[in-house]
Amino acid sequence: MTSRVELRNLRRTFGSTVALDDLDLTIESGELVALLGPSGCGKTTALRCVAGFERPDSGAVIVNGEDITKVPANRRDAGMVFQSYSLFPHLSARDNVSFGMRIRKVAAAKRHSRAEELLELVGLPSVGDRYPHQLSGGQQQRVALARALAMEPSVLLLDEPLSALDAKVRVSLREEIRRLQIDLGVTTLFVTHDQEEALSMADRVAVLRGGRLEQVGTPDRIYEHPATAFVAEFIGSMNHIPGVIDGDRVAVLGQFLPIDGEVPGDPEVDVLVRPEAIRLQAATDGAGLVTRSSFRGATARLHVDLAGLELQADVPGHDAAVLAPGARVAVSLVQRPALVTERTASFQPDVRAAESVG
Ligand code: ATP
């Protein structure tokens, strides 16, 4: 059985710290929502409110229309996986997985076979007898996942389950968690501060800031149309390029771009531009100078000095040889709506010198 989970106006304070500030968020049945945000924005507190380890000062947690805010954690139907070291060290993998079933007095033979089934489900068919210290970090997290799934929870709560693992294991395990989550159709709340992880796994990403929901949406929506400068900055890299508002457009680097979202009162703005939205063309009289290049395979990230303004641009990997450090380049922007914010760049480049049409 899967569930629809609603966080309604959740507020939780610790002394003068406001961890959750009227947080409103609904996770639809069978959906995986990633809670993403910088350290201290309230992600774990929100998750703990759903688990029942934390009681909000006000607001409610609703599951399938029922208010469970005051239901104790052990009577909630949630499975949880923590960052790490959450297995019982003195129990074998099999006994870790069947622990909850033992508490609920499931017969030994049944819980044994169910634990084996679950270990197989998470890709560990032959480690039942091993103890946590005999398992790698990635294997331990698989066992923790099997344990969380053992009671067929209607909600799965994952608190940075991959952050202690090395990069390769992290990527393969996130794909597997996602596959399992879709197969089982279990409603899942996934806490992470890793934007790539959130974008690659989630049906929707909820970006938190200071205990409030800054934006919630599908990964591509969040990336392509960030609602605020905070979201834009937090997800992926962003260039700040000085521009000037001109009606419903912004003049930037000799081009006019339509404006996406709100227009600040002051016409002098920063235009926020993704590295992949900057076009570079080798040109001996170009205003830009490539200063650094890091090859990433399919793409290369170039650092370009444009009349004193530092830009980061992503180009196809096979262009990296032509656009090597020392190369002069003409810089232009992909013609698409841009977010603008109040001008923060303390450095004002000579915009006329910077104007160069690629
Ligand atoms: P991180 O990514 O660093 O784990 P987070 O987004 O999960 O951060 P929370 O752990 O939810 O953030 O914490 C939100 C705020 O509430 C922080 O300022 C934190 O210091 C504070 N806080 C959380 N739990 C407690 C507690 N038990 N006592 C006091 N302050 C707390």
From TrEMBL:
PROSITE patterns: ABC_TRANSPORTER_1, ABC_TRANSPORTER_2. GO terms for molecular function: ABC-type quaternary ammonium compound transporting activity; ATP binding; ATP hydrolysis activity. Residues 5-235 form the ABC transporter domain. SMART domains: AAA (SM00382). Keywords: ATP-binding, Nucleotide-binding, Transport. One of its GO terms (cellular component) is ATP-binding cassette (ABC) transporter complex. Its EC number is 7.6.2.9. InterPro entries: AAA+_ATPase, ABC_SmlMolc_Importer, ABC_transporter-like_ATP-bd, ABC_transporter-like_CS, Mo/tungstate-bd_C_term_dom, P-loop_NTPase, Transp-assoc_OB_typ2. This is ABC-type quaternary amine transporter.
